[in-house]
Amino acid sequence: DKIGCSIFDMFKSFQIGFEDSAQIIFFIFFAYAFVYVLLKNGTFDALVGSVLRKVGNRIELIIPVCMILFGLLGSTMGMFEETYGLIPVFISIAMALGYDAIVGGSVIYLGVAVGFAAATINPFTIGIAQEVAGVTMFSGLGYRILCFVVFMGISIWYVWRYARRIQKDPTKSYLYGEKIETLECASREEMMEIKMTTTHKLSCLLFVFTIGILLYGTIKLGWYIDEIATLFIIMTIVSGLVSRFTPSEIADIFIEASKEMMYGALLVGISRSIAVIMENAQIIDTVVYWLATMLQHFRGMASAMGMLFAQNIINFFIPSGAGQALITMPILAPVGEMVGVSRQVSVLAYQFGDGFSNIFWPTSVFMMCGIMRLPINKWYRFVTPLFLIIFAASIVLLGAAVVIGY
User: Fold this and answer.
1) Residue 182 above 70 pLDDT?
2) Mean pLDDT, the chain, whole residue set
3) Hey, which bits of 123-280 come out as E strands?
4) In this structure, is the dihedral angle defined by the CA atoms of residues 75, 78, 80 and 86, taken in order, positive or negative?
5) How far apart are the first and last CA of the chain?
6) CA separation, residue 404 to residues 139, 166, 301, 399 (Å)
7) Which of 75, 291, 351, 403 pairs as cysteine with 310 (C-beta 3.0–4.6 A)?
8) pLDDT at 384
9) How far apart are CA 43 and CA 320, in angstroms?
10) Alpha carbons 232 and 354: distance in angstroms, whole number
């Protein structure tokens, strides 16, 4: 086989990157189309208005409640990509409530990403890693629950603190003066005047029903992106008919929704192209081998910390949690055992290193900023302190795991 990656191959990687990510790209279109119908028929504004009237000045409680919900979905079921279609909705809700797009995007992105990383029984990370490492499936659950509480607590505090600051003074927003494209929705005052009609209530029931079917399909039937996208296609049509849209109008709404998400979809393909270039240039295998060799020179606590750093670096090259587990755990688990680190701790180091850097490394951030339509530099300005705090907490919790013989 040819070794290396020529200039021509680098540009060819863009084509391959878009082909490899086509599943996610089209999923984004179909998921957003369903949400877009609810915007067009007024359900979105009516629902937010109803919530505003009921919670009054306690509206900021939406942040911890929603982050915990998405965190639990990520931590237990391994949900991540499935939430992409909801991001534009939460950004618009946040802006209508006097926050900014960073707050709205963080409620979902940080909520599900931190939950996915602080996995309790996530089958796509913990399940695979423990199986490959030769550890009893989902063992050590109690300590991972503690880790989940710590990491979610840090993330909720950070987002809540930022949200309250900009609500008091909008000029404190990192996006102040930036024009951010979002769903067109009414102002907070206008939303509070909108009453729920029969169509709005039926649409809300359809939305809840859709989420219920999605959860059942992913938990019981093993659904993934193709099946969930199919569900969104069906529910887009059903909700359109309930809203009394003609078939032609439903088709127009789908086209309009796809236009809205085109920028994010393009970034998904480009971000995948980066991984394709690294794979073709055989960078990944070299990095894994070099890091594993380096770790053999450390012992005990130092080795565990070395694994955490190594997994963070590897996650830059292998964004897939399952892929990283299959590549690194067969090497790092026995290496850790040789230098006095239990296989359970090796799995924990993989878990922390694989997950939390997804909010920081460009291989993931580029795609998510495309979906959120945020300037990448603004996201880094917001998230870098949080990532450093989480990384410090990872060191403490991993060190504690070594001390207690986890």
Assistant:
1) no
2) 82
3) none
4) negative
5) 43
6) 15, 42, 12, 9
7) 291
8) 95
9) 36
10) 29
